Amino acid sequence: MTRRSRTPGSPLPQRDGIDPVRVRLPADPEGVWGTVGEHLVARFQGAIGAERVGRMLREGRFVGAEGPVDAELPYRPGIYIWFHRDFAAEVPVPFGIGIVHRDERIVIADKPHFLATTPRGRHITETALARLRRDLELPALQPAHRLDRLTAGLALFVVRPEDRGAYQNLFGSRLVRKEYEAVAAYDEKVALPVTVRSRIVKERGVIAAHEEPGEPNAESRIELVEHRDALGRYRLLPATGRTHQLRVHMNGLGLPILNDPVYPVVAEEPSPDDFTQPLQLLAKVLEFTDPVDGRTRRFESGLRLESWPVPVDDPDTSDQ
Description:
Elements: E1 21-24, H1 36-44, H2 50-58, E2 63-64, E3 67-68, E4 80-83, E5 98-102, E6 106-111, H3 128-136, E7 142-143, E8 152-158, H4 161-172, E9 177-185, E10 194-201, E11 210-212, E12 218-228, E13 231-238, H5 245-252, E14 281-289, E15 296-300
Parallel strand pairs: 8-14
Antiparallel strand pairs: 1-4, 2-3, 5-6, 6-8, 7-8, 9-13, 9-14, 10-11, 10-12, 12-13, 14-15
Helix pairs in contact: 1-2
């Protein structure tokens, strides 16, 4: 039995909390590439551009285990090469990340609205993961789950790589009690509490998810906490974690969450620097049995939904 060789660690440090890209040179049985430079130009000419790849090679920005890669280095399959992408300018999200809890294994962060959890698409350096790695000086930090960019509240990050699987498994096995808070329209004709079960489908490249007939794959319990005139404050308890699940289920009840730009109608995308109408959805509580030490853990967000201010004469600012 052949033992797989261990992938070497990167010779490049993180930049702005982002890991370098790692490339492993593939097999080339037909001898298409004579040099490493020829392969890199062919591989990245679409994403980066041939001229830019050539410049990066001359600047020594492609690095192997022994240092900068020479463009004329004879091609050899299996070599690992690392490089940093050039990040496009991003509009800073003008809200800080709260730290609800931190120990040697986990960080519980209070993510603000508009900040993506992890690097993806056009959101790279302006993400919770990149910020926390930089600010807490924890380069190995990884998320155990992900919140939508527009949703605020609690997100669990794992400090040590060897612990990540155990905490990810909590979410994958539905062993985490998650409680959300939302502000949406109030309709006395909608009977609550209710448990909604449906089949939600999210197609790649399509912004909105949708419900369709078939075996349910999403379940949410929805409770009305209180209402004031035309608005209600709701407690949402998802048993599953489909993309946009709570937003889809609330909309399906005729109670779309306040400031939702997708449900019931996909709105025109606002300006990147428009932070004036945050989605009124908050990941309020995370509760689970710690997979490492067996302790019961419960964390509560310190954030509040701005459309539901606490009454001035109410000395108790905690949720009921």
